[in-house]
Amino acid sequence: MRKVKVGIVGCGGIANGKHMPSLKLIENVEMVAFCDIIPERAKKAKKDYGTSDAKVYKDFHRMLKLEEVEVVHVLTPNAAHSKITIAALQAGKHVMCEKPMAHTAKDARAMVEAAKKSGKKLTVGYQSRSTPVYQYAHNLVKSGALGDVYYVKAPSIRRRGVPTWGVFLDKEKQGGGPMIDIGTHSIDAALYVIGNYEVESVTGSTFNKLAENVKDNGDWGMWKPGEFQVEDFAVGFVKFRNGCTMIVEASWLLNIEHGGVPTFCGTKGGIELRGGIHMNGEREDKLYTETLSPGYADRDYFKDMELSPEQYEARQWIQSIVDDTEPLVKPEEACVVSEIIDAIYKSAQTGKTVYFK
Ligand SMILES: NC(=O)c1ccc[n+]([C@@H]2O[C@H](COP(=O)([O-])OP(=O)(O)OC[C@H]3O[C@@H](n4cnc5c(N)ncnc54)[C@H](O)[C@@H]3O)[C@@H](O)[C@H]2O)c1
């Protein structure tokens, strides 16, 4: 298989925890360029994952001039996603951008447009879709096994779990708190399962009730007074054009013992994603509940490979470039996730429901 040469922009937590180790395992990938505004991070990434003659940059514009780079992974804080992604697409690169696609819906739309104009591929790092459970649930709904799905719960609940590294508490650099950070995963995964991107309206509420006073954030430690500029809990009520309704909840701090689980209720049956898939309904006039346990072989590609979701995501993405097929996460879909999050924040601010065109 031909070589695919990758450049990394942002060599922090997610680069080291997910992208670089996963790309390193793909036989035909070479990481040939690394960029970070903190040069030591780019140098260390080259040492750990790069080719011996890999280049190191502080300014991503310079890295994008490197002709041999075919693919760029954008792994910076949220507010930098759109400008780097758009510049990379304009420079003729395929782009994998970390989630959320952008810190505003406007920027996400600009990224979709830039991808269309450039003719290059763009995807977003929503790795939940690469789990066997979500792929199985997606195919189950597609097969009609649940009938008409009309109620969805998409929770991302942490009782205590504020990310205290990087700039996660900075409103300008991230765009928001738990809803844009982890709620974004649940929204993406839920839309993928139901295969519905036709949103009619969104109502939301955000809170910052606990950040000032809690004292226990586990191993992630505490933040400085005044540093926590975003919500600590947000909830959204999403109505789709076909009447389906979805509740999204996302917290870093909430006085709750058990958050719920992703739930999809249809006219023929329902599923709850609790480890495996708990399916329920009525059969021969009796209620039933059964547990399905999807494994590696239940995913759509690489059935013989025991890949983690991160490894699967990277492999599917690189394969889509080699084969010129679609990546698992399409930019138009990720953009709808950003539209929903934007609308939750807007609705919370104005007290009004946001209607989609
Ligand atoms: N998929 C997931 O589950 C998941 C998990 C964690 C983080 N993320 C996402 O990954 C992104 C980064 O998060 P992180 O935890 O790695 O943060 P981080 O702060 O650990 O790393 C970000 C890196 O980007 C660098 N950087 C900032 N601006 C830059 C620029 N203009 N050019 C080059 N480098 C720049 C920083 O110096 C830092 O090294 C965020 O968008 C976050 O939402 C995704």
Can you characterise this structure?
This protein is an alpha/beta fold and 357 residues long. The protein folds into 2 domains: 4-126, Rossmann fold (3-Layer(aba) Sandwich); 129-304 and 337-355, 2-Layer Sandwich (Dihydrodipicolinate Reductase, domain 2). The chain is built from 10 helices and 15 strands. It has helices at 13-24, 39-49, 60-64, 81-90, 105-118, 132-142, 171-174, 178-194, 309-323, 331-350, and strands spanning 4-9, 29-35, 55-57, 71-74, 94-97, 122-124, 149-157, 199-207, 233-240, 245-251, 263-266, 270-274, 276-283, 286-292, 354-355. Strands 14-13-12-11-7-10-9-8-15 form a 9-stranded mixed beta sheet, covered by helices on one side. Strand 11 and strand 12 (270-274) form a beta hairpin. The longest helix is centred in the last third of the chain and has 20 residues, at 331-350. The mean pLDDT is 97. Bound molecules: nicotinamide-adenine-dinucleotide. Nicotinamide-adenine-dinucleotide (NAD) is lined by residues 9-14, 35-38, 41, 60, 75-78, 80, 98-99, 125, 127, 165-166, 181.
